[in-house]
């Protein structure tokens, strides 16, 4: 009986460890898809966690900036959300792995509420996903 309990406890501990870690994917398309899906999940709830938090606005429509720079800026903006860090950690991890930069410039001149930032990020990542899918199909 005791070995069975030990095995059960070990299994529960392992499951808790796995579920507490952010999902990491390898393909850029899967990462973009996961970001978009998580944004949709947050927006479908009653309220976006820390929705009144202000973050730096990222100019996702600025064609002078590379996609990697915009991803880096989005990750940097989200790292500044400290109250709900656990809710946004999976976004940050995936964004950082997509852009591969360690540093980027982000102006805090214009700020936006998180509840408005997330749909913009979702539109941007969805557009990137579509472009990647289209280029893979050719």
State the secondary-structure class.
Answer: mainly alpha
Q: Based on the coordinates given, report the CATH architecture.
A: Up-down Bundle
The unreliable regions are: 8-15, 17-23
Helix content: 55-70%
Ends distance: 59 Å
Strand order of the largest sheet: 1-2
Radius of gyration: 18 Å
CATH topology: Growth Hormone, Chain: A
Report the portion of residues in β strands: under 5%
Calculate the mean pLDDT score and round it: 82
The CATH class is identified as Mainly Alpha
Tell me the number of strands: 2
**Whole-number count of domains:** 1
Write down the overall geometry: globular
Instruction: Give me the number of helical elements.
Output: 5
Summarize the biggest pleated sheet. 2 strands, antiparallel
Q: Topology as H/E string? A: HHEHHEH
Organism: Eurypyga helias (Sunbittern)
GO biological process, one term: immune response
InterPro entries: 4_helix_cytokine-like_core, IL-4, IL-4/IL-13
Keywords: B-cell activation, Signal
């Amino acid at each position: 009986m005791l070995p069975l309990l030990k095995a059960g406890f070990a299994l529960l501990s392992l499951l808790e460890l796995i579920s507490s870690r952010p999902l990491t994917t390898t393909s850029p398309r899967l990462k973009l898809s996961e970001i978009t899906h998580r944004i949709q999940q947050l927006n479908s709830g009653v309220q976006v966690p820390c929705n009144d938090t202000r973050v730096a606005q990222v100019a996702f429509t600025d064609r002078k900036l590379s996609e990697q720079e915009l991803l880096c800026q989005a990750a940097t903006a989200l790292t500044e959300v400290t109250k709900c860090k656990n809710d946004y950690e999976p976004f940050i991890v995936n964004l950082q792995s997509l852009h591969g930069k360690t540093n980027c410039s982000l102006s805090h001149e214009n700020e936006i509420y998180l509840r408005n930032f997330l749909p913009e990020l979702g539109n941007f990542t969805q557009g990137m996903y579509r472009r990647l899918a289209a280029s893979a199909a050719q």
